Amino acid sequence: MAVAILDPELSSSPSKQGSKSGGACSALALYLRWSDRIFDAVIQCGIDTTLSQKAAAAAAAAIAAAESASAAVAGPTASVPQQPQPPQQLQQQDRLILNFVLDAPYIPSVAIKKLAVCLKHADTAQLGYASLEKAMELRPPVVEEGMRVLLTNCGHHERTTRIGCIRAVKKYYTTSTHTATIEKWAQMMLQSGIDSAVNESKRVAADAAKVLQQPVEPLEPGLDKAQEQAANERAIEKKKAEVIQVHRKGELEIEACLVKQAELLLALCTRNMDLYVDVLTAYATAPPPVQLVLRRVVTPLVKSVAATPAKIVPALTKFLAGAESLVLRTIFILSAEGPPVPSGELVNAVLELCDTRGLDARFFVFIANGLTKDEALKRLGSVLMLLNGRESQWNLVSEFYSRLTTPYAGSPSVLSPMELLLELHKMANEGVVPMNRVYEGLLVYTEMRKPDGTHVFSTQVIVAALKILLDEPVVSPLMLRMAELYYRKRSGPAGMVVSLLEKLVERSVWDMSEPVYLSFAQCFFAMQPGSLGLVKQLPSDALKKMVTLLPAVEPSVRNYVNGMNESFREKFSWLLVSHAQE
C-alpha cells in the first residue's frame, strides 16, 4: 500500500480520496485505515509497557526498603541479604511509538494528536511529550499538529506534564513561523487564568460573607455581664479565625488557577522579556486578591533576571495604570537579588518613571545607592513625605537612609551620616518639607539599629553635627529637638545640652525666628532643673516671650524666681505680680 500511495499517479491527499485513488477502497484509504489502527495499538502498547515498568520499579523499591528496615531491626551483626536487581532499567522513553512515527512511509499530521492520550496520566506523560518532541524534530510535517497538542497541555493540571510541554514548546519559540502563534496562545492562557482566579476570588469572598452571616450560638443562661462579654468576644474570635481560614484556603486555590495558566508566558519571558508587559497589563485589571497572588507567581522570573536588569527595564516603562504595585515589587526584587549597586539602566528608568508617571518616593527607595549625591539630595524631601507615623513607612525611610550612607564594594556611600543629618536640618530651615515630617525623619535617624541592637548612626556623629549646627548663621529650629533626642534616646549628658542652650542665649536666641525660640523653650523645659540657671541671663521681655510661647514653663520658672535674691526678683516682678493677681 505504501508503494501504491507513493506513486505519483496514485497518491493524493485525504480530501481527494474519492477521485483518482478509488474512494474508500483506494490504496491511500486502506493505508490510512490500517496505519490508524496500528498506531492506536502501538500507543496502547507503549502506555502499557511504561506503566508496567514503573510498577516493577516501585515494587523493587518497596522490597528494598522493607529489607533495609528488617536489617536495621536485626542489628549490626545480622547478615544483610543481597538486594535483587530490577529486571530491566526503566527507560525514560519507550521507543516503540517514536519508531513507528519515524519509520511509517506516510503519516497524516492529524494522527499525531493521538499522542495526547499519553498526557492524560502522570505516569505516561513523559512518554507523550518526549515522543512528540522527537517526532516534531525528525519529521517536520507533524510539527504544526504536534505544537497544538503541546500548547493545549501547557495548562495541564499535573505540573510535571505542564512543565514538560512548556519546555518542548520553548524550543520552537524562536522559530519565526511559530513565535506569533505561541505568544498569542500564552497571552490567551494568562487572561484565562486571570478570569478563573477572579471567579475563584469572588467565590472566596462569598464564602467568607456566609461565615460572617452565620448566627452566633445563644449564650448560656445565668451569665453575668462580664461572662457575656467574654463569651461574645470568644464567638467573634472564632468567626475571625474561620474567615481567615477561608481566605487562606481560597488564596491557595486562586494561586493554583493562576499558576497553571501563567507558567507558559512566564517561561517565554526568559527568552523575550518584552512579554512582561502582558503580565503588567493583566495585573492592572485584576482585583487585589488576584494581584497579591500574581506578585508571588512572578517572583522567580524577576529573580532570574536580577543579575541583568537591563532585560526587564524596557517592559517596566510600558506598564498601565493599576500595575504600580507590581512594578514596585519588581524593582524591589531586582535591587535585593541583583548587584549591590543597581545598574545605571535601572536607576535611570526608575527616575524617569517617577518624573513622567508621577510615582511616589517608594519607587526609588531601593535604588538609592545608585543615585548621585545631587539626585539623592533632590529626592530626600519626597522620601520624608512618606512618613505618617506608621511602621511600614519608617521601614522605607530607614532603608533609604541605609542605602544612601552604606559604602559598597568598589563604590563609596552616596552621603556620609553627617551629610545626611545636616541636610535634614537644612530642609527644616528652608521649609520645603513640613517641620513635623522632618522631625519624624530625625526620629528615624536616631532610632535605626543594626541586627545586633546597636545604633546605625553613632552618637559621635550626632554630637559633631550639633556643634556644626550651632555655628551656622541661621540656626535650625530642629537643632535643639535633636539635642533633646540625643539626651533622651542616647543618654547623652545633660550638661552638653544645657551648654548648647547657653550659647544660644549668648546669640540672643529670642531675636531669632519664632520656631527657633519655641524649640529653645521646649528644650529648656525638657532639661529642667539643669536649665533653670539660664533664667538669670535672659532679659525680662525674652522670658515673657518664652512663657507666652510655652505656658508650661511658667510654674517652674516662677518658683525659681521666687528663690532668687531681691535684685533678680525685681527684674521679673511681672511674673510674680501676675501670679498674685490670679
From TrEMBL:
One term under GO cellular component: mRNA cleavage and polyadenylation specificity factor complex
Region (Disordered): 1-23
Source species, domain of life: Eukaryota
Domain Symplekin C-terminal: from-to ranges: 360-548
Bias (Low complexity): 11-23
Pfam families named in the record: Symplekin_C
Signal peptide: none
Matches recorded under PANTHER family: SYMPLEKIN (PTHR15245:SF20), SYMPLEKIN-RELATED (PTHR15245)
Protein name listed in UniProt: Symplekin C-terminal domain-containing protein
Native organism: Coemansia pectinata
